[in-house]
Amino acid sequence: MSTFLRTLGMGMGLAMALSLSTAQAAYPDKPIHIVVPFAAGGGVDILTRVLAQNLSDSLHQPVIVEDRPGAGGNLGMDYVAKAAPDGYTLAMATTGTQEINPGLYSHLPYDAVKSFSPVTLVASVPNVLVVNEHVPVKSLKELIALAKAQPGKLSFASFGNGTSNHLSGELLKQMAHINVLHVPYKKATQAVTDLISNQVTFAFVNMPLALPHVQSGQLRALAVTGAQRSGTQPQLPTMAEAGLPGFVVESWYGLMAPAHTPPEVVQRLRQAVLAALAKPEVKAFFGKQGADVVTSTPGEFTAMIQKGQVRWAKIIKDSGAHVD
What we know:
It holds the Pfam family TctC. Belongs to the UPF0065 (bug) family. Residues 1-25 form the signal peptide. This is Bug family tripartite tricarboxylate transporter substrate binding protein. The chain has helices at residues 2-25, 43-59, 74-81, 95-104, 140-149, 164-176, 188-196, 207-216, 239-242, 263-277, 280-288, 298-319; strands at residues 32-36, 63-67, 89-94, 116-124, 127-132, 155-158, 181-184, 202-206, 219-224, 252-258, 292-293. By secondary structure, it is of the alpha/beta class. The chain folds into 2 domains: 31-124 and 251-319, 3-Layer(aba) Sandwich (D-Maltodextrin-Binding Protein, domain 2); 127-242, D-Maltodextrin-Binding Protein, domain 2 (3-Layer(aba) Sandwich). It has a 6-stranded mixed β-sheet, with helices on both faces.
């Protein structure tokens, strides 16, 4: 009897193993959702939709983009952190959600490292300092001079308190010793609309969102915030080159799954993302939006976030930035 039970148990165990292996090998067998933790129409949303379309082609399943904005990206990221770790609910994380928010919110509803299984970086997207066409400046130095000549009169828009756009403005205030008013918006598109209509003076805007308006002449680009010039807009100087040495704010987008997602599922997703980003048409689209394609291993992704959290915590503390 005992021999029979042992044989039966081994058979059941083998069957379960084969079943699990088959299920994992079949991934994906239903639609995948990528949550963008910001409003539709912004830079994250624009690039994610193009990536999703190409992932659908290679994974042979619909890849649906869901915009779940709120609390500086926290609501959308928390939704994904609490989703089933099966590879069917993903997030397009950003510098803000994983590096800035941990130092900005006292009670973050997720752990920016432990709550997720990183898949890969997708893009490096510098912010670009832009003024509207009515502002009589053509360089960073001229903008600083105008701000000093009219203390408290100039204003800058951001996509919300504590965003990289906001902290870029605060860093400019600190380093240039100027007094300008911060005007936070809930939606990136509304911030840009008011900037164009001269309701605010300037802003640090994600390149994909800013570029069409720069090309139309409604906005004037002065500098990019990265450590190096943008690969897609090399004519624009960095903030350091334009007159503020040491000013560097780099933004990224990256795909993440909930923590404990099976490694083989993460690897399948990563392979699909790398294949999509390698397509000439995808690279060209990203380039037209001012984004540089950047990829990573999950381990490299995690290490970058941990390093970034330390840097942003200091910037946040020095700026006095806070959320209500």
